[in-house]
Amino acid sequence: MNAPASTKAFAYREYRIYWFGSYAAFLGQRLNVVALSILVYDLTGSTLSLGYVAAANAIPTILFNLFGGVLADRLETRLLLRLTAVATTAMLATLAVLISTGLIHVWHVFVLSVFSGIAIGFDNPTRQAYFPTLVPPRATKSAVNLNGAMMASASVVMPTIGGLLIAGFGTATGFFVAAAGYGAMTISTWLLPARKPVFDEARNVFADFRAGISYIIHTRIFAVIIGLNFASMLFVFGYIQILPAFVNEFGGGDRQVGFTFSAAGIGALSGIIVAGRVRPGRRLGWMILGAALVFSSLIFVAAHVQSYALVLPLVAIGHFGNGMFMISSMTALQLRVPDELRGRVMGIYAVNQSLAILGGLWAGTMSDFFGVRWGIALGPVVVVTLIGLIALTQRQVTGLRDDVAERAIGKRFEK
Description:
Elements: H1 13-44, H2 47-74, H3 77-100, H4 106-130, H5 140-169, H6 171-189, H7 205-218, H8 220-235, H9 243-248, H10 254-277, H11 284-302, H12 308-336, H13 342-349, H14 351-370, H15 372-393, H16 395-398, H17 402-414
Helix pairs in contact: 1-2, 1-5, 1-6, 2-4, 2-7, 2-13, 2-14, 3-4, 3-6, 4-13, 5-6, 5-10, 5-12, 7-8, 8-14, 8-15, 10-12, 11-12, 11-15, 14-15
């Protein structure tokens, strides 16, 4: 009789290699977000420009996310990860060189943001399809939690370091360091196993994409949870993209931008850790909705306080809710999605990360009309209203159970 497989993802060597390589890339990604927002605001002094750059990155990401999931199911995903890591490394290094030589212009940032968005569009669904294959099914929840912790802890570490690094050595240094992070991810892909495509390349791409869309539309839990994720990222999380303008309301600068990013990361990491330990049982759906409500409500309050000292704890608590919301909802979906649809369905889900960037256009546009504070606060009002409607009308979500998913895993693993 074989010993039971471990439920802890870190027990598996291939997952550990993936995790550390990805962590280096996410450190680079978080540093890139800080450096890019500071660079654009320094070049233009405009919140609307911050939104336009966010849109230039997010729109191609969304478009390629949608079909990236199809490619993740029909091509070798390790190769896709390697190609996107190489492309991102080259683009970040190019930005660093342009800045250090004094040749940088806003149009350079726009063009490179578009190409970066294309790379991320392939990368996100590829990761969602790839990492569950590195562990047995019963370790999937652990892998999801560790992936969330990776992203959140990167948000803790790099923004503060990045703010200090950029303040001390200039924006170019930030982009060089970010490029090095993606370079490390490139190296790690050579040590990872291939993932066999789940179907033949000759099948119709659009038909396969429609199959993923159809599954989400006709599976109420997926449709509502993914929709709430999309709304939360677009209307609430987008404030991150205009942080330089927000901290400027308090007379802050690059360091304060970094501190605020880190407060968000600390809160998110704490929420992810708690979500991984809590066993909500029959109340999983209520936990998902409650965590999303905490995030929206606290960001609304943070937008209106008059002291920067109050912003940091409010942002931290708000992102604690977001960390719990994201991990709980992602785990619920990953444990329920059929293996043959994983790349396509989770590729569509991965659009939420792009919407968090595109949310910068929403926040920037609203700020241009109503001022920075209301530009940040209007989105949470939309999401709180949506949460209320879901709580009142969607019994399949409010009745979502944690133990049902875990029993399903056990049955799938035994087969």
